[in-house]
Amino acid sequence: MPTESSAERGPWSLALRRFLRNRLAVAFLGLFVLIVVFVLAAPLWADHVAETGPNEEHTVEQITVDGEKKDVVTVEGTPIGPQWFGAGGKFFLGADSRLGRDEMVRLMYGGRTSLLVGISAALIATLLAIVLGLMAGYFGGWVDSLIARTLDTIWSLPVFLIGLSVGIALAVGGLDLGVVELSGGSLWIPILIISIFTVPYIARPIRGEVLALSEKEFVEAAVAQGAGPMRVMFSEILPNLASTVIVFFTLMIANSMLFEAGLSFLGAGVQPPNSSWGTMITVGVDLLKIQPLLAILPGLMIMLTVLSLNIVGDALRDALDPRGKARLDAALQFEAQSAATQPVGEARV
Amino acid sequence: MSEAPLLSVADLRVGFATEEGVVQAVDGVSFDLRPGEVLAIVGESGSGKSVTAQTLIGLTRANNARIEGSVKLGGDELTEASDAEMRRLRGERVAMIFQDPMTSFNPVYRLGDQIAEAIGAHRPDTSKAQKRERVVELFEAVGIPNAAQRADDYPHEFSGGMRQRAMIAMALALEPEVLIADEPTTALDVTIQAQILQLLEQLNRERNLATILITHDLGVVAEVADRVLVMYAGKVVEEGTLDEIFYDPQHPYTWGLLGSLTRIDRPRPHRLPQIAGSPPSLLDLPEGCPFRPRCPHEFSKCTQYPGLEARLPEASEHRDRCWLTPEEKQAKRVVEGQIGLEPPREARQA
Amino acid sequence: MARFIARRLAGMIAVLFAVSVIVFVVFMVLPKQNPAQSLAGKNATPLLVKNIEEEWGFDDPLPQQYLTMMEKVFTGELVQYEPRIPVSDQIIEGIPATFSLTIGAAIIWLFFGLLLGYLSAIRAGGWLDRILTGVSIAGISLPVFLLAPVLIYFFANKLEIFPNGQYVPFSEDPGEWLNHLILPWITLAVLSIGFYSRVLRSNMLDVMNEDYVRTARAKGLSERKVMTRHVLRNSLIPVITLFGLDFGATIAGTAIITEAIFSIDGVGRYAADAVGKFELPPIMGVALYGAFFVVLMNTIVDIVYAYLDPRVRLGESASA
Predict the structure, then answer these.
(1) B295 confidence band (pLDDT: 50, 70, 90)
(2) Best to test chain A binding among B60, B98, B104 (most A CBs inside 10 Å)
(3) How does strand B38-42 pair with strand B210-215?
(4) Using a CB-CB distance cutoff of 8 angstroms, which residues of chain A are in contact with residue C276?
(5) Nearest chain C Cα to A162, which residue?
(6) What angle (nearest 5°) sits at the alpha carbon of residue B128, between those of residues B163 and B84?
(7) What integer is the mean pLDDT of A321-325?
(8) pLDDT recorded at residue A342
(9) Using CB atoms, which residue from A176, A211, A261 is nearest to C143?
(10) B274: Cβ–Cβ under 8 A, 6 or more apart, which residues?
(11) Lowest-pLDDT range, A208-217, B126-135, B227-236, C108-117?
(12) Buried (b) or exposed (e) across A4-23, using 16+ Cβ within 10 A?
């Protein structure tokens, strides 16, 4: 009998090794980490280098660049361009609009909001999806019908549009459920909207897997031993969902960030005084002709984050399910490989 | 009586390049198939039997596959045939049916249309009506009732057994010289298995259709085969006529296969007999005889790779790959009154 | 088949009902403030708010309020308040632009997406596949709000090849209609091209592994026939249904951001403006319009799928 630790280490460390072999994925994982570090460093940069906050306006001020004095915002309303380290790091990327705010600081703080909302929404959606998926897949019957129908209804709506509507309605009026009260500017509003509307995306695959797993013998065995439904769902089935959950969670963060950016761009997501990369693009698009960087930079940040997450998510999927990769020469290669690597005389699955 | 063989395979080797190394799925397989003969190729999963069969009609050709050796069909060397030539012979001269009739038909086309497609690929001048007639004819030949209506049904509307009959019908459409059946009954219920085997046997008899039957189930073999090839780890370990294999098996692996058949005419053994261990990983083969790690009778000579030779003076076509002398074999193969291996050892505690 | 269609249509109505209830709840019930205030918008006078209260009957019990709302929607009385125009008129005005944008982009993305996906799949594992996969992943990750500004900046502002926005009706000037739509089409299409090519590639690779493809080869079909009649035919089914859903979503106004950035006066732009002005009635109207199209396309897709896949049509219990 293999010892417990080697059995548990087996598949996970194999998957880890496979993932690490994918140099592209590792590189993009590194990029994602860099981005996270970038946004976490916001207060440091703001306090020590730029010496200003994300919302502080410097409309009528001047800064010293290489000895010369320049207007932060010209008389016509043109914000100053990127100074890099010319002014000691102030206005590293220039000013963001006629309000004269430091673009670099805003980019970092905006990123915090974007990532915060994205990751929180993905987390909540994933947790909800796990619970719903487990219940629907394991209990079946009317529980399943109810949950599946609800998910399908949500899924068949123009999710973005409804999210937009909800976002704007709640931004104006805040949320009042009696038990819970949220002001219109709370970050929880976009987080909740995004998570509820993206739950079906994960919940359906999870439900499918739970349905399949529920048929397997180890579940029967657990029930025969007297395990109650909670035990079975959480101790037996849940661990087997781990790889699906991990892959989807990663992709969900990307999705949520895009959703948030879309909502915020239109004004129905993150509300002032908070700002996110999405709200920054709104401002930037107006100034596109004069200072294209203002629109392009936040968009670029979003894209790099989303791209990294997509690549890493894809690589995770490949690492956790390698048979999906060996598709090149069909059944024969697979048969050869399975004969080679799994010396147990079982018929092909 | 030696007629010229229809199909002649000599020293066939098929290797696949994989991430972990070269997997030699078929390692020097040779056999002849005479007209009207039923040859059974028997072995566990990973023994190379399916790869051998598929290589005969070129289905294993790929960038990562190395195919060596010779496959001659009536004088034509198939290993050197172009892809176009192989395509022409598939279905027309050599037809193949597969294990799972459920997934072997395209679910979105009617069954009759799929058979008509096979006909059309080789006889493009056949009219729709002629194809239809032929389909009905074939369905009747394989015993599908209501042939005319059923030709318009979709695959999922057929039961497993009927689907397999339809597969066989499709294989016969162009009246091939050779039929290769790769585990045709494995996915079917036992009662249906018997029917399909009966059908195959009938077709072999009535049409003198040479058949290669691939299976892991010796019970199936006993019904229909004339000659048997036993494969292990990509190599042939024993070959002979049906009687020779069943009544005078020479290789310990064959004994294991026979011994693990439960028999109605014997008292129930205390334990289900099994061959200890599992088939080897083809990337990590033992030195010498591939069966050595699992063989209870292995001895010092087994580290030398045994050749496939006829070791019995009166049976020149009965070959095996085992160093034991014929007398030793006779002595060792009988366990508890029947042919088999040693009873399984007590499982060791962890 | 007829029963199948009938069932689907009934389902469609049920979903639309659910959507209208959701819209009602979200706009009227959930917010903290007086719904009349929300409807009136940011700059409402108290008189306007009072009028709205009476018109909409906010003192009535909730179900009655719901009915009042639905009545307004169906009789075309749903109006925005500043200026006072019926929402439905505005939506209808915006339809030609949105449809031009969506249909054009859809044709582009379908064609290129499928082409790239097909090429990737038949040369799977090779250098072409790797490049195309890279392109696809980049495409998927290129959000509209990055691509649009970049395209506008380079092609419209710097190089001045294309105009930087606005919509010119086809009836007015076909040449300009095309000219103004090219950048928006590209923006909308790029994302989907990446997605569709990956979906087709993935489907094709799955199908190529199927037993029936092996059977097709074993019976001597030419490689071309195997690819088209068996691999493509089966791979395209999920793609077509996906396309239907996407198309529905885009027409419904997911092109809202594209329309906003390119200043195209479509339904999406109408909604975007309303969001900026915090005006609820137009958003409600667009949400219902959008839901209608999505549900309509979903139903059509279901029916088409049943036609293409006999297992669904003939009542075989297909696993989800």
Answers:
(1) confident
(2) B60
(3) parallel
(4) 266-267
(5) C287
(6) 75
(7) 51
(8) 33
(9) A261
(10) B256, B260, B344
(11) A208-217
(12) eeeeeeeeeeebeebbeebe
Q: Do A344 and B278 touch (CB under 8 A)?
A: yes
pLDDT tens, residue by residue, C190-223? 888 888 888 898 888 888 888 899 999 999 898 8
Give residue-wise pLDDT tens across range B239-286: 999 988 888 888 988 888 887 776 777 777 666 667 777 888 787 788
Note whether A343 contacts B280, CB cutoff 8 Å. Answer: yes
Contacts of A348 in chain B (CB under 8 A): 45
- Residues C91-143 pLDDT 10s: 888 888 888 888 889 999 999 999 999 998 888 878 888 888 888 878 877 88
Contact B79, B101 (CB under 8 A): no
Q: Which residue of A has its CA nearest to C296?
A: A156
3-state secondary structure (DSSP) of residue A62: strand
For strand B334-335 and strand B338-339, is the pairing parallel, antiparallel, or unpaired? antiparallel
B-interface mutation test, from C123, C203, C214, C215, most B Cβ less than 10 A away: C215
Rounded distance, CA A338 to CA C186, Å? 45
Rounded to whole angstroms, the Cα distance separating B103 from B101 reads 6
Nearest to A303 among C142, C209, C280 (CB): C142
Distance CA(A261)–CA(B80), nearest Å, equals: 60
Residue of B78, B82, B86, B87 to mutate, interface with C, max C Cβ within 10 Å: B87
Checking DSSP bridges between strand B7-18 and strand B65-73, what pairing results, if any?
antiparallel
Query: Is-contact A156 C295, C-beta < 8 A?
Result: yes
Q: Are A275 and A113 spatial neighbours (Cβ–Cβ below 8 Å)?
A: yes
Which stretch of A335-344, B55-64, C121-130 has the lowest confidence by average pLDDT?
Answer: A335-344
Q: Is A267 helix (H, G, I), strand (E, B) or coil?
A: coil
Cα distance from A2 to chain C (closest Cα, Å)?
34
Q: From CA C133, how far away is CA C141, in angstroms rounded?
A: 12
Among C32, C214, C278, select the one facing A174 at the smallest CB separation.
C32
Q: Identify the chains in contact with A, defined as 3+ C-beta pairs within 8 A.
A: B, C
Could you tell me if B228 lies within 8 Å of chain C, comparing CB atoms? no
Whether the CB of C64 is below 8 Å from some CB of chain A: the reply is no
How close A7 comes to chain B (CA, Å)?
14
Between CA B261 and CA B273 the distance in angstroms is: 8
Region label for B324, one of left (φ > 0), alpha (ψ between -120 and 50) or beta (otherwise):
beta
Q: Are B242 and B68 in contact (CB under 8 A)?
A: no
Residue B121, chain C, CB below 8 Å: the answer is yes
- In the prediction, which pLDDT does A172 show? 66
- The single-letter code of the amino acid at A151 is L
Nearest to B23 among A336, A343, A345 (CB): A336
Contact C26 A166 (CB under 8 A): yes
Q: Using the structure block, give the residue that is written with the tokens 């044709």.
A: C107
The answer to whether the Cβ–Cβ distance between B59 and C217 falls below 8 Å is yes
Contact C320 A161 (CB under 8 A): no
Identify the three-state secondary structure at position A14. helix
Which residue in chain B has the smallest CA separation from C235? B108
Write down the pTM of the prediction: 0.76
Question: Which residue on chain C is closest to B56 by alpha carbon?
Answer: C218
DSSP B196-256: HHHHHHHHHHHHT-EEEEEES-HHHHHHH-SEEEEEETTEEEEEEEHHHHHHS--SHHHHH
The two structure tokens encoding residue B155: 């695959």
pLDDT score of A126: 93
- Ordered DSSP codes for A278-341: HHHHHHHHHTTTT-THHHHHHHHHHHHHHHHHHHHHHHHHHHH-GGGT--TTHHHHHHHHHHHH
CA proximity to A338, closest of C121, B278, B60, B257: B278
